[in-house]
Fold:
Amino acid sequence: MLSVQIFGVKNSPETRAAERFFKERRVTIHMVDLKQRPMAAGEIRRFIERFGMAGLLDSDGKAYIDAGLKYYKLSDAELLGRIERDPKLLRLPLIRGGKLLSIGQDEDTWKAMLAVG
Structure:
């Protein structure tokens, strides 16, 4: 049976949309609320290798703008520290289904996860 791991924040509309998408298709969901538990370094590295640090960050989001990150030049290590403290800097949700990864509301990739599973 197919299962996915969703990294998100419970009160995020995008995270709830992903949960609903997979629940409607009877997929087992392993939810990781990033407000309660940060992502493991190896897990976030997997997303960075696939999408790059810039692809992970929600540069149009309120948290990113409020933190002034448009104007700072931070190293990847500094950005990772910021992400651990404030997961809303990420384009949520981050989803892993088998070997496939997705960021944000990406129903095409979600459907591909279903096809592989």
User: Anything to note?
Assistant: Residues 3-116 form a domain with the Glutaredoxin fold (CATH 3.40.30.10).
